[in-house]
# Entry
Amino acid sequence: MSEVNSSEHVGRWTRFVTARPRLALLAALVITALAVFAGSGVADRMGSGGWEAPDAESTYTTQVLEREFPDSQPNLLLLVDGGAASVDDPAVAAEADRLTERLSAEPGIAGVGSYWRTKSPALRSTDGHEAIVAARIEGDEKGAGEILDRIAPAYRGTHGPVEVSVGGPVAVRHEMQSIIQEDLLRAELIALPVTLVLLVMVFGSAIAALLPLGVGIVAILGTNAVLRGITEFTDVSVFAQNLTTALGLGLAIDYALFIVRRFREELAAGADTRVAIGTTLRTAGRTVLFSALTVAVSLAAMMVFPQYFLRSFAYAGIAVVLLAAAAALILLPAALMLLGPRVNSLDLRRLLRRRGKTASGPVEAGEGPGRGWARFSVLVMRRAPVFAVVTTVGLVLLGLPFLGVKFGTADDRQLPATAESRVVQEHIRDGFPGSPGGGLEVLAEGAATPDQYAAFRERIAALPGVQRVDGPVTAGGSAYYDVLPEGEAVGQGAQDLVRELRAEPAPFDTSVTGAAAVLVDSKAAIADRLPWAVGIIVVVTLLLVFLLTGSVLIPLQAVVLNALSLTAMFGAVVWVFQDGNLSGFLSFTCTGDIETTLPVLMFCVAFGLSMDYGVFLLSRIKEEYDRTGDHEHAVTFGLRHTGGLITAAAVILAVVMVAIGTSRVTNTKMLGLGIALAVLMDAMVVRSLLVPAVMKLMGRVTWWAPAPLRAFHQRFGLSEGEPAPAVERDAKGADGAEGADGEGDDRARDKVTAGA
# Structure
């Protein structure tokens, strides 16, 4: 659109959001209250799985086995401990039989078996003091969790001569869900007061500090209501709530920081309240809109993956980003309209500023720190080749550990060591022969003779990496085999065995499931869809940054530098969580691999947040370049006026992510701490060092675009500032010295053209 039409559009928007501010805030209060009601209990409707691809062979096989052979897919395990007595002791055996019969009679329970019924050595510990009762809870995750809540207290604890503990996949998922909810509440209690203190330090004014926090709370509560509605139609992972809290606080605070800061700048320059809001929306408001779109696109890319774990983060992320932007662009201007100059009330730094004036004369708001960033940018650009090469090499070196990444699946070791379901699984994993639950199941469908079943069993047993084959167990026209691989249940040997089993010829249809098969299928699904996700992010990012800047090279630079900013995160994830460094300090159990979907999730979230900061910096550089035509001065100006704010926003978001990272669930800890590192590296290294260095090296060619694209941008693009007349640019001189210290000219013009 043209500049005139754009200004008219922003002017109408300014009039809309400031016309009836009290009514707007009252409506927001009512809607937020309804969101609290609508979103209540959302966590109870969420699942804790979602790593499996729903259209994969392993998923199909599991569903058939659950339906036709419920005994083959137990998800509830009772670990029966006879204490000093053997599990074959008559008193222990009698009590175990009573528990087995009682469990068989429970509604919703199918396929109950036990060591005492089958005498299977796989269900008896090697020391003979523990054995297993296995069963299947029917229904989906939510229904299975409700049944577990109902029956577990009746079985857990002492029963005559035995002690019973509850475990199995259902118990692991259910306990993980409960712990995540508890940890999320604790994270919010940590993050909110710390964030408020940091905002007070940034703004000085307690009133101004409360505004970003209010925007964040509105975004979080609104997203919970959206997720509650989505659970009516599809599965949503409970992990998505962590992203809701992190992005709801982080992005809302980012957006509100930039809007409130620009509004206060305009007031300080002498604008009245309505004009200041108009200028703020025309400048920082547009940047917020672009930032929200870029972050939303990065998160929306996870929709291409079939796993509902990843799709859940897209649901939560898109909702919280759009709500945060809406609150910042609608509710925040209404609040600023009512507050006006009172936004600076309760200034907690007044005493310090008075001392500063006494010592060195008056200091314009925000000028001191801005001058420091300006001097720093000049230093970086003076030694641009050195800073560009050293920073790039350093980031690449930090990312090298990721070359050794090993992908695995999430299991009970995600939970804290004291969690009951994990204790049960560890007893089974370490004390039982053949690691029950760690094998592969081969489903055979189609008519076959006993000899054909037996021959296929022999061929399976002859495959490399097979430790034992049990079965076939037949029912109707199908059968299944239990295959125990050598080594780890999801190790490379087990994954290779999955491929061998699927390739083995048979006179009937075969399919394979099990932990290793799920991992193989999950990796294949991600590898198949990853190019599409990356392509969507890159193409849309290039388009949006072009619309903002009108340059062909700046969007390419933004994508490359954003990717570099993520190297430290990926390297740290492998070095810490896969290799186990700092595991004692961070209180997690190293499993030697990374859950397959986590790097994809972290890439999408961290890339979006990096673009968030990139857009804020580039928009201010573009604004000044349009005004002066001086490339180096524009870079200095942009870093001066956003460097401190971006750093403050990054620190606040990192605090929120670190609070999430205090979770006792390893994947959540990895997500929180990894993204906190990525955000800090992006703000403090990439935006502070690489961007000014690279833009200095590229020079004015940075803004190049072919004539057709320049015409396209003039018609459809958006920019924050207006090009200065040629005579004004000439008056600035080559070094843009005047603009380096002030904004008087553009401030005066903004008052006239704000569209108030």
